[in-house]
Amino acid sequence: MTGTDNRTILRLAFWGIPLSLGVMGLKMLAWWVTGSVALLSDGLESSVNVVAAVIAYAMIGYAAKPADADHPFGHHKAEYFSAVIEGVLIVLAALLIIWEAIPEMMAPVLLNAPTLGLAINFAAGVVNAIWAYVLIRAGSRHRSPALSADGQHILSDVVTSAGVLVGLLLAIATGYAILDPLLAVIVAGNILFQGWKVISRSVDGLMDKAVPADEEEAIKAAIAANAGGSLGVHDLKTRQAGPAIFVDFHMVVPEAMAVGDAHDICDRIEDAIRVVHPGAGIAIHVEPEGEKAHGVRVKVSGASRK
Question: Ranges for the Cation efflux protein cytoplasmic domain (predicted)?
Fold first, then answer.
């Protein structure tokens, strides 16, 4: 990842803080003018967005630090901690919503000033939708799990807000006040599901999950096309650490090949992989012929063992 990428990610994370505060303020204002527990649940979820935005900004800044003696592979995984914490906060928000909604189900009341409240909540939803699109797109482009998790969370918030608006319109139209707290419980269930997805994706990253299959195939193709002169490549392993990609494999060369010639092949392969994944960390173990191949093999054009 380049310095420009890091600055872009950090800048987006920073702006997420005032935006999330503004959206939370709008949603809590919508609850204040209506008394709707469903709108309160929507506002409480947005309060999680504020905390998550602050954590994401702090963790992204830490993850951008260069490698040092204590962290020779860099600090990239810090972003996963941000995403896990956000997932936990989402789950806690859902439980708080259920706690608020259950008493309201026992004694439901009709809304006050519903038109104004729903209009305010709709405006907050539009802001969230635009911001979620920006974060998800940037998170994918810059391989930032923290931005992606934040964007996915905000997108679930948008879906929640849409559901709340539709449900409250039904409550107003039918006069069934119980639809308000009932909808809040349904919203909480959706939030719990979204929180679990954020946590599970982040745990995959902390557990050194391999790159997606299509990206691994691109890496294999880069190796195969540039390993001429070697006798084969095997034991290919990949892993992700936030925006960073690490590639490790063994390359077999003729026993009599000079070290310099083997090094030239390695340089050629590394350059090709970094065309596919700029900034990838690559480790190549050079072996003399006769070593038994194991692990994931890469078929190299023209390579053959004597």
Answer: 212-289
Nearest C-alpha neighbor of 281 from the set 246, 242, 244: 246
Domain architecture of the chain: domains with CATH: 3-206 (1.20.1510.10), 213-288 (3.30.70.1350)
Picking from 247, 161, 155, the residue whose alpha carbon sits closest to that of residue 210 is: 247
Residue whose structure tokens are 């096309």: 225
Cβ atoms of residues 160 and 106 within 8 Å? no
The overall pTM is greater than 0.70: no
- Residue 175 one-letter amino acid: G
Closest among 156, 92, 100, 166 to 128, alpha carbons compared: 156
- Among candidates 192, 253, 209, which has minimal Cα distance to 228? 253
Distance CA 153, CA 56 (A): 12
- The pLDDT tens digits of the residues spanning 48-103 come to 778 778 887 887 788 778 778 887 777 777 777 777 777 787 777 777 777 767 77
